[in-house]
Amino acid sequence: MSLIPKFFGQYLLEKGVLNKDQLIDAINYQKSKILKMGEIATSQNYLSEKQVAKIHNEQKRTDMRFGDLAVQMGMLTQTQLEEIITIQKNNHIYLGEAIVTCGHMDDETLEKELDAFKNEQRAVPPIEVIINEDVPVKEFVEVSVDLTEKMMRRIGDMISKSGQLKLEKEGIKNLGVISYLEFKGDINARYVINISWEVGQELAKKTFKKEDLPFDEELIKDTLAEFVNVVCGNIRSKMLEQGKKMEFQPPVSFTEKTNDVLKIDSSEHATIVPGYTQLGNYELVVVSKK
Amino acid sequence: MSESKKILIADDSRVAAHLLGEIIESIEGCEVIDNATSGEQAIEFYDKYKPDLVTMDLSMPGIGGMEAVRQIIEKDPSAKIIVVSSLGGAQDKLLEALEAGALSVVSKPFDEDKAISVFKKLLGI
Description:
- The structure holds two protein chains of two kinds.
- Chain A is an alpha+beta fold.
- In chain A, 48% of the residues lie in helices and 19% in strands.
- Chain B has a single domain (5-123), classed as Rossmann fold (3-Layer(aba) Sandwich).
C-alpha cells in the first residue's frame, strides 16, 4: 500500500521491471511526441511563426514558460492559453504506450503492471479538507494538509484529523519542536510543522521501529526534520502536477528551549491548520507573503 | 568467503542515514562504510573508499546530491549510484538523476523489501 504519489516509471524502476536506460528511452520518446505550444498556437492561428520566434527569444532572458510569457507579452489571451494547454494534454501519449512502442514491454505485461500500479496508488483516497477560497496560497495549503496527514499515518502510525483553519499575524508558539522548509518558485511559501513532544516521541518511535526508544530531544528534532523533508518532497511533486514549479533547501528545526516562538514577519500571512492525533496535537502552518 | 560489499550513504539526515544503514546491513554481505552529509563530502568519500555502491540523497547542503552524482560519474563512469528520493512522483528530478548517471531510485519513506531488492539487484547478490 502506498500513501504517496509516485509516477509509473519510478514504480517500474523500483520494481525492477524496467531498467534505467529503457525508462529514459521511453520518456524521451514520450517527450518527442508532445506537441509544442508554439506549434499548436500557429495551427490554431493564434500566433504567427514570427511571434513564436519572438517569444522563444524572450524566453532565453526571462526563464518563463512559453504560455505565461506569451500572455504577458499580450500575444495570447488567458482563454487561448488554456485552450492550447487542453489540446496539448489531449494529444500526449502515456508512458506505458511509449514503453511498449519502444519495445521494452509487451501489451500484456503493461496491462498487468498498470493494474498493480493503480491498485497501489488507489489504496488511500485523498484526504478531504475544506479550505475557503480566500485562504492565501490555497492550493499549496490543501496539498500540505493532505500529505501531512498521510505521512502522520504512514510514518508515525497516527490517525490525525485537521481542525478549523485560523490566520495568525504575530507568531507561532512552539508546542515542543518546530521544523520548517522554504519553498521558492511559482509559489513562495514556508511549510512549518509544530508538534508537541508526545507526537514527536511517537514519530521517533515509529520511525526507528523501537517502542522502548528513550526520550531524546535531539533525535526527535532530527526525526521531525526528516519528516518535513519527505512531506515537502511529495508536496513539490504534487504541485508540479498542478503546473507549479518549486524548489527547496534542507529544513531548519528548533525546540521550544532554543526558540519558543516562530516569528511572522509583518509582510507575511500564516495559515494555521491544527492537527489532532490520539497522542497529542500538532499544527501545520503555511506562511506566505501578503 | 567473498569480501563484503562497501556502501557509502550520502544523506544529511542522520535519521534517514540510520534507517538506510539498518536496511543495508540487514543484507548479508553488505556493510556501510561511512555517511557523507553534503554533496562535496560524498565526492570526497567516494574517492577515499571507492565503494561498491553509493546511496545519494538529492536534497543535501552544499552542491547537493544531483551535482555530486554528476561529478562522481565524470570521474568514474562505472560508479553505482542509487538516488534516495523524497520527491514522490517528481518525474523531472528522477529523470535528471538517471541521465546524470544514477542507476535506480529508492523512495522515502523507505519500503524495506523494495529497497533491499534494488540494492541486491545492483550489487549482483
